[in-house]
Amino acid sequence: MAGRGFMQWAANCRTVRLDVGVATSEIIVLGQTLCTDLSSITPESTVTFHTVVGHEGDITVSVKNESPEGMGKDGGVTKMVAYISVATHSSKIDDKEVNFLFVDKSGDTIGVATLRMTAFYMSLDVDCDRDGVVEKNNPNKGSWQWGPDGHGAILLVNNDCDDYLLEMDPEHKNSKIDGPFDLEDMSRMAVRVRGPETLPEDCRLRMWVRPDDKERLGIFNLSDIEKRRAGGVVLDELGNKHIIGPKAGYLAQVSYDLMMVRRDEGETLFAVEGLKYPDKDFNGTLRIHLSLLKNVTVPVFEDTVIFRMAPWIMTPNTLEPIEAFTCQMKKSENLDFINDFKKVVEAAGIKVNIVPPYENRGDRWMQDEIELGYSELPGKKPMPVVLDSPRDRGLQKFPKGKLLGPDFGYVTRYDQNEFVNSLDSFGNLEVSPPVKVDGRTYPMGRILLGSAFPTTKYGRRMMRVVRDFLYAQQVQPPVELFSDWLGVGHIDEFMTFVPAAGGKGFRLLLASPSACYNLLRKLKNDGHGDVLCFEGKTRSGESAERSISDLLDDSNLKAESLQCQNDIDWNRDVMKRELGLDEGDIIDLPQLFQLEDGKGAGAYFPDMVNMIVLGKQLGIPKPFGPMIDGACAFETNVRSLLEPLGLTCHFVNDWDSYHLLLGEVHCGSNTRRKPFDFKWWNMKF
Amino acid sequence: MAGRGFMQWAANCRTVRLDVGVATSEIIVLGQTLCTDLSSITPESTVTFHTVVGHEGDITVSVKNESPEGMGKDGGVTKMVAYISVATHSSKIDDKEVNFLFVDKSGDTIGVATLRMTAFYMSLDVDCDRDGVVEKNNPNKGSWQWGPDGHGAILLVNNDCDDYLLEMDPEHKNSKIDGPFDLEDMSRMAVRVRGPETLPEDCRLRMWVRPDDKERLGIFNLSDIEKRRAGGVVLDELGNKHIIGPKAGYLAQVSYDLMMVRRDEGETLFAVEGLKYPDKDFNGTLRIHLSLLKNVTVPVFEDTVIFRMAPWIMTPNTLEPIEAFTCQMKKSENLDFINDFKKVVEAAGIKVNIVPPYENRGDRWMQDEIELGYSELPGKKPMPVVLDSPRDRGLQKFPKGKLLGPDFGYVTRYDQNEFVNSLDSFGNLEVSPPVKVDGRTYPMGRILLGSAFPTTKYGRRMMRVVRDFLYAQQVQPPVELFSDWLGVGHIDEFMTFVPAAGGKGFRLLLASPSACYNLLRKLKNDGHGDVLCFEGKTRSGESAERSISDLLDDSNLKAESLQCQNDIDWNRDVMKRELGLDEGDIIDLPQLFQLEDGKGAGAYFPDMVNMIVLGKQLGIPKPFGPMIDGACAFETNVRSLLEPLGLTCHFVNDWDSYHLLLGEVHCGSNTRRKPFDFKWWNMKF
């Protein structure tokens, strides 16, 4: 919709009223122009007038005759208007005076109107060069521009918890500075004022934000806190708190009156913390205003800075892993899996976190509860931030309880008016590597999430508030895929990305029934029709073993699998278009699907695309395919497709512990990755 | 925020799977390309292959080798992909066939993969040239562009009531076609399809909208209604109703399956009605999709049209009046006023509507209950639409009861969670004439509304939902003024616009205490200090008479008035900047203000800017100023300022009937004006 345009509440050209025989006192801020209608006060017998500028100073006075465009002096509508300004570089703040002398035809001065000005220098300053320095009156401070040539200050959502011994909530839930590390997460802002010893009585110097923004940021007066601390008070005992923001007082505060002014240029330093990510009703930009007010409420001058809230960013499989997560179930139920999993992590040379039963409470689906991303301020280390799914099963307390902490943020979205469904799990939320589409670049890729078709009335979709949140981050514009055809309904059941030498630097891997039937047919043609697949495996207490020929002859399985191929192909076409891929960027991995009774489709054997990708080390669900020449033919096929790309395939046994429960390796694990080298504010739109 | 990008749910390039020895049947829509991976099905001993296009037809087949960028055939990643398309102009819809023949080194064909295509032509069409004609497959139909060179179809919010004898609600509250006049308010849309006699069994031809849009429009199948009517059923008995929209069934419907197909090009005609104006959560554009679905839900082809909802538009004082409204109070209480008022209306040569006591229920503030605007479709007469204020006093039932009707629409915004305050009255809502500001043109002016400063915590503002509505209309971007300093708090207490010869074609009139004191001083200097103002008038039972000298000596009144001058000057500066005005465009009318106890400011004598403007005829509150040389000196002053502009001043006595109740002529009246000649869709952003 049409953005609600920002409007300044004080003009740079301000109307003042003078009177003959009177000295009028007015405030003038350096850079501002005062404007006064002389014709309305000119004595009747005046034939000319003079302007006399009293005191020394950089005062400019110009007088113009103003009448409606294209009209002369007819109808008495021409006005004589004087414009008075004081140069912005003026170092003098002493009283400045202008006298308008009205002279009659005999040369006598028949009246004098005097304007006495109290001059101020005032500036609200931020770091809009994104170099860690709060500049002085940067002309760009009131606007925000994307790109490497752009400008504009940035705020971080301060949602880590530096005071983690005392609290289990992200810091934006409180309004104090939890020590120096907390301060590190905030941006600096300065008020610089030079003016008279005291403000005129009915004047205020007021910092303020729009009512809509008062829950989105919190501002601390660092200079004031420092002064009080210098007076011997311990920081935490100060009740140091927001001067503007949700916890500034009993109610959220929108404004704060500054005590001032010094005749030398005083600087008051502020720290600003972000409290909310961009969202449906918040485009991410925040304005902070500094107004000089007359009559307590009427602004006579205004300075404005703009911040943009750093978005939450997801990390694709092509970024280097830092640490991996998985769950250990009670009674060592998934010990085989964990042992295989550890080997993959070890090969990747990263840390592994095994979440014990008392923390996972029987919930093995580590992928589904959380998505690990980050947020970043210029010149600072990016802060990892976990997005907590509305799913909330056994792992519900894990993200806040174990991840949230110093320099590890937490965010969630949940709408209690909607039912949670399986598509809300974050196995259904991925992000592509960087791509270029029709000349538009997505340097941090595009978010991918699974949905129902909008054409269907009763389809499952990810919770609206989560989708709104993802779209609002802007820097990884989402692509909605079709995943509702699957029983569980997660996009990681049919797709993943792997890093790869050459090409675009990655490949899209898709589960493919067609590829599987091609492979099975070839094996049969080569004389292996009787070889058993899934040897020694059971399903619902019965043997899962089937020969290649038997699989090929199962017309139900084939019909169901090829219908799934159809659904996957639909997603293939969407991704080709929305991510700018062609067939050369896509690799089909053999896979069969079956329809679970009334529940949609599921993998018929361990779903190989549902892998964990740790750099070049892949942890792939072990398919238990036909053993030919001493090797699983499915594994051989996958190796032949992926190893030429410089990848190493580790096959992880998840048959009993995950596959039969309708998930696989990816579903049961999670990965924290290095942030992009690319800085999000350098993105171009 | 980042717009949620529109995403097609079906690609123009669609993946299909072929197999050797198999004839695969697929649907192809003219204009679409099918894409198939031949390498995955190529028999091992193949050395070459041929493409044979069976039947006659405009079929194009091209085969490409696709490998990741910059990579050769290493790693077996090169794919041979065939692209098949049928020319869009193809007139034949017979089955089309392509055979891929795989040949071994001895020249023998060792396998054939056959693709049999059922070709369709399908198109969803609207009037995107804005000329009243539904074009055929206009390439612009999927986008919307502002401006005289722009394009894009338009919907009207169908909020009049053509069935007014039966209902008292705007039509969008029902879902039927209330006769031919109702149909006139709707836009046309056509589905054109040429294809096989019947759709393949699992296929659907489905029209659909996003779930968000299902309450914003309603679609009727006119062809179907016509067919049934031809079968002898009376229109109103058909239960003719939305096929998509809020009242399509028990629940709002998002989709509709079309019965089709004819071998000749069949056309099905639809009527689309708008139901909601653009608003905070609705940018005004609506997309309607037509999808060809496979497996009942999976789109294989998609066509999309876009509509924009015609905004609600306000009419400034510079537009010609059509009719005027005022209230007659019980016991002829305001008969003097009405007689004076009628004279102004008579001079303007327009109709006057005197709302009798049983309809106004003691509420004389006709300006405050409603704002009269309009909406417009290309090629049709603009439809007047009343915006009903959330104020709701005695006149509450007037807009629905007396204005809503055939070709007179009704809209309101109200939030029961907010308290109504005096700033919600539409004396606080005006619109400027067309203006140009720093090179940006506002050909329909800018909406003006009064607010509190955002710096104040407890200030009054217009109800959020009303402001959101006004901003969302886009074509008259609002400017918020400061009116909370006034007790009643309406911007019409200190400003109005009048048409005027020369210049920008209008002048801004501002109430001015300074101008009033200048005038009073001049009168005193000329020896009229003892002349009485407000002669014979009373206030709270006491005489209101005061001499010029007495007024000049009242230092309280002067201090209060000059503080008000300050507040008005602040608004003057905002309007100069936001409307691109200079002093030559502004005329100060003499006025004094006083502070009502604890309630803010109010006019001290009848507030002359609070006038009704009917073309060049002005109905100005009679100020009862000092009689000098047989004429009121205030009137003389105002005449001297306005009559040179070609305006006629009528002074209307509203002292007892409005002024003492804190309102004036403008507050007590309303005006319906001619729409702009300028068409809103020609606006440029």
UniProtKB/TrEMBL annotation, chains A, B:
The Protein-arginine deiminase C-terminal domain, residue ranges: 300-682
Gene Ontology cellular component annotations, sorted alphabetically: cytoplasm
Major subcellular site: cytoplasm
Ranges for domain Protein-arginine deiminase (PAD) N-terminal: 13-118
Pfam family, one: PAD_M
Broad enzyme group: hydrolase
Record's keyword terms, sorted: Calcium, Cytoplasm, Hydrolase
A GO molecular function held by the record: calcium ion binding
EC identifiers of the protein: 3.5.3.15
Catalysis performed (reactions): L-arginyl-[protein] + H2O = L-citrullyl-[protein] + NH4(+)
Active site positions: D368, H490, D492, C667
Entry's localization field: Cytoplasm
Record carries keyword Calcium: yes
Protein-arginine deiminase (PAD) central domain sequence ranges: 122-294
Family (UniProt): Belongs to the protein arginine deiminase family.
The protein, known as: protein-arginine deiminase
Source organism of this protein record: Branchiostoma lanceolatum (Common lancelet)
Taxonomic lineage from the root: Eukaryota, Metazoa, Chordata, Cephalochordata, Leptocardii
